[in-house]
Each structure stands twice: as structure tokens, then as C-alpha cells.
Amino acid sequence: MRSTKTMGLVSVSMALAVTLTACSSDSDKEASPKPTSPFRTQPYTAPDANTGIGPTDQALPTQIPEPIHVSELKPIGADQVVIAEAGWGSLTTNLNVFDPKTGKLIQTVTSANTNWDLTPTVFAGEHPGLPYILGHEVWRPRGWRGKADYTLTWYEGDATKPAEVVLPEETRTHGRHSSNAVTPDGKYWVTWDDMLFGIRVVDLQAKKQTGKLQILNCGPFTWPVGHDIYSLCESSQELLQIHIDDNGVPSVANRTKVLPEGFTSARHAPFAADVKKALLVNGYGNAYLFDFANGLPTAPVEKAGSVVKAGISFDNPAVNADASRISVPYTDGEIPAGSARAGDWKKTIVFDAAFKEVGELTADDLGGGSAESQVFSTDGKILYVLASKDDKTTLYGFDAASLKQVSKAPVKGPGPLGEMFAPLTVTP
């Protein structure tokens, strides 16, 4: 009984304490003002001389709130080059704009990658409705698993508000060089879609997909001449012409069986826009130059030459704007250059349109370094080669006609540097 009385007293005391606490809490709420945390609009400001960019350390701020910096993207000159961050497997990559003569880093854009190659379109100059860099991207909310959003992104001006075109959910763009293109007037962007087995067309001014076309057993190239897109059909030995009408809808215009018996294709096939020729070097080293200046060829297409050299393996070629120079890197040994066990870069041989050797670049021409990537300038007059040695990277420029060195500049970005892109000129 004594224990029961004690428990009763405790229960009454606890109930009274709870009641008093509740009353006290209500009175405090009424007496104290509500805490406020107003949203403060913080404007973005252009970086100044004291702003750290990339790996540069920035001094501790003296102004509170600290200014928020953002680079306003600027038009890219036809005499500049874009060098992408090296490496593969990340969701995004830095695209660094350099002055190749001085090595100055002008600006950096971070873009998402595609399935395989990094395939942005860099525009020379400023054009209404077109960005400075058109990002061909795949955004993956769950990383490499789950849904993938294939997206075109407009990188220009205010870097905080890029415009986007999200392609239909069933899209799976091929994601390699020469499998997407912009028409010479900057009107349409075209891509080969592996899920569709055909092409998709996006109107860059209207910022929307306007058409698609399934073409089985063809592709994946998209070589643009006017509003016509040229490609090939390997199994039937045909070249293919696709026309995009005024509404942005593609249709097959023509196809001709002109490729040689036993023809095999390639993963990459760069385009010489000034003369409307496509260069294809297949796995056997057989080189073809397809001429679309007058539409589809009607005569059988002959091999233009071979890039095979004893004891070394060829890598992906580059062609300049008028197809007068073709640059082919070679790695040491006979293991294919694109494989994991391929040898180191040995040299680069430059050919003319008839595949006669014009000259070669070796480590001696690159200060003892090794070539990492190459690109011809927008006008095709300079061959740029990115070389590395002892953790330092240098950008060399060589006259395309004579291979004489015309520029040399150390370059450094926020991260390691790799593939290069030359700006594309369009005439709306």
C-alpha cells in the first residue's frame, strides 16, 4: 500500500509538471517574436584580378556577404581552340577555350558527356539563336544506371541559365565523331540515333525536334551539305542522301551503290566542309574520300590510298577544311592504336589528298614530348598538336602546307588536357 501511494503522488506530480510546462510554452510563444530569415538576393558579379579561377587559390574575403562570381561566356574566335579535359568515365567534362598563340586560358565550360566520344559543337563568332558551344550531352540522374536524358544545351552569355532541348525518352544518340552535325547555315542539328536506327533533326532556332527517319542497315555518319545529310550503308555498298525539308522533316532523297565489293566502314569519318568531302579510313588502313559537291557520286568509288606503315599502327585521322592535308598519328608496334595495350605515340605523318607523304612530326618536333591530340585550325591552314612531357603540356602549331612550326605555347587548364576542337563557321 505504501508503494502504491508513492506511485500515485509521482503520477500527480508528473501530470502537474506537464501541464505547467505546456502553459509556460504557450505563453513564451505569444511573448517572443517569430524568428525570420529573409531570402537575400545575391547578384552574380564578373570575376576580377583577385578572383581565383580553376586551381588558383583565392584570398580570404573581406566583404560579407562574399561576392558570388560567375564567368559570363563570351563568343569564341575562329582563331581559338577548345581543349577538353582528359579522361573518360565521368559524367561531365571541362571544355577549355585557349588562345593557341599565347596559351592563355580564356574561359571554361563544363558540359556533360555522351555515350562514347565527347561531341560538342563549337561555333566561331556570335550568331542569333546559336550558342557559343552546343553541348551534346547525356544527363543521368542515377549515374550510369537508370534513365538517361539526351540533351542539347546552349552555352552562351549567362552561364547560370542555359537553354536546353531534351530529346525523346527513347533516344540513344550514337555519340561518336561524325555521327552528329550542324547544317552549314546553322539551322539544323542532326544526329544518328542507335535506338531509332536512323536520324533525328533538331531546329536550333525553334529549339525543338522537328523530325526523325528510320533507315535500317545504314549510318552512322551525318555529313552535311546544305540541308542534305550524306551517309553510307555498309552491307549494301551504298552511299545515302537524306534531304531535310523546310519544316525540318527528313526523307531519303537518293542512294547509289558505288562502294567497292567487300567495303568495310569505320568508327570515325571527318568532313572537309569547304570542299564537301568526307574522309573514311577503315580498319585495314584503306582510305576513301567521298565527294558530295555535286550530290551522290554515280561512278564507282575507288580507294584513295592507304595509311598502313610497317611496324606501327595508325590512329584516327584528321582532315583540314579543303582536304589538301590529312594528318594520321601512329603508335609504336602493331597492336591497334585504339586498344588498351597499344604502344606509345611514335610519330604523325601528314599526307596530301592523293595520300602522298608531305612530311612527318616526331618527338624532336615536339620538344621531346608525346602527341596527345591534334586538330586543324578552322581555316585549315594550321595543324595544332597537343604534346606532353614531364607533366607539362604544350600546344604546337605547324603550317599545314610546309609543317614548319608557327607557334608554341605552354597550356594549363583546371585539369589534365586531352582532345581538341576547332570552331565551326556557319553562314545563316
Would you kindly provide a written description of the structure presented here, covering whatever features stand out?
The chain is mainly beta and 428 residues long. Helix content is 7%, strand content 38%. The protein contains one helix and 31 strands. The strands form eight sheets. Strands 22, 23, 24, 25 and 26 form a five-stranded antiparallel β-sheet that branches. A hairpin with a 5-residue loop joins strand 16 and strand 17. The longest helix is centred in the first third of the chain and has 30 residues, at 2-31. It is globular. It starts with a helix and ends in a 7-residue tail after the last strand. The model is unreliable at 1-28 (pLDDT under 50).
Give a quick account of the main beta sheet: strands, pairing sense, barrel closure. Answer: 5 strands, antiparallel
Between the first and last Cα atoms, what is the distance in angstroms?
100 Å
Q: Can you count the beta strands?
A: 31
Mean pLDDT: 89
Going by helix content, strand content and strand pairing, the class is mainly beta
Uncertain stretches of 5 or more adjacent residues = 1-28
Strand content: 35-45%
Report the total helices. 1
Helical residue percent band: under 10%
Task: Please compute the radius of gyration using only Cα atoms.
Answer: 29 Å
Net shape: globular
